[in-house]
Amino acid sequence: MGKVKRPTLSVKLVKKTICKMTGLDYDTVNSVLDTYAELMYKTIMSGIEFQLPKVGIIGFYEIPPKPEGMYHNAFLKKKVMYPARPGYLKIKFREGTRVKDKLKASTLFGEGLRGEEYRDFLNSLYEGEWGKPMAHW
Predict the structure, then answer these.
(1) Which residues, in sequence order, are CB contacts of 40 under 8 Å at separation 6+?
(2) CA dihedral 118, 123, 120, 108 (to 10 degrees)
(3) Which long-range contacts (C-beta less than 8 Å, at least 24 apart) are formed by 28-37?
(4) How far is Cα of residue 127 from the mean position of the Cα atoms in its chain?
C-alpha cells in the first residue's frame, strides 16, 4: 500500500487567501511574503535556526564527518577505499507543542474515545477519590 498524498496549499493560493483575510492588495502581500522568504533563506543558509510563529522551528542536525578508509560496498560486494567526507548540517523541522497536540486531536482516526470523551472518562474514574477532576486539558 502506497503513501497517501496529502493536499498541498500552493504559494499563489496562500497569497490570495491572505489578501482575502486581511483586505490588503495582492502586490503588498506578494512583496511581504517574498521578503519573508528571502529572510528565511538567508537565516537558514547562515546556520541560524528560524522560528515560525505559532508553528515551530526550522533547525538543524549534524551529519558527522566520515574518515577515509576501506568500506564494504554492498553493490560491488567488495571493500573499496573511500576518501574522507566532511560533515554538514541537515534541516530538521521541530513543531511547537501546541501545534503537535492540536494536530493530534484534530486528526484522530480509528476506534476509541475522542479527546473530550476520554477526558470525561478519566474524570469519572477518579472523581470520588480526590473530589476534583484529574484530567483538565
Answers:
(1) 50, 58
(2) -20
(3) none
(4) 37
Report how far residue 9's alpha carbon sits from residue 19's, in angstroms, rounded to the nearest whole number.
15
What does the DSSP assignment read for 50-101?
A: EEETTTEEEEEEEE--B--EEEEETTTTEEEEE--B--EEEEEEEE-HHHHH
Angle between helices 11-22 and 26-45 (to 10 degrees): 130
More confident residue, 81 or 9: 81
Residue with cell 530538521: 92
**What nine digits make up the cell of 64?**
558527522
- Position with higher pLDDT, 74 vs 128: 74
Give the Cα separation of 49 and 35 in Å (integer).
Answer: 17
Cα(43)–Cα(91) distance, rounded to whole angstroms? 12
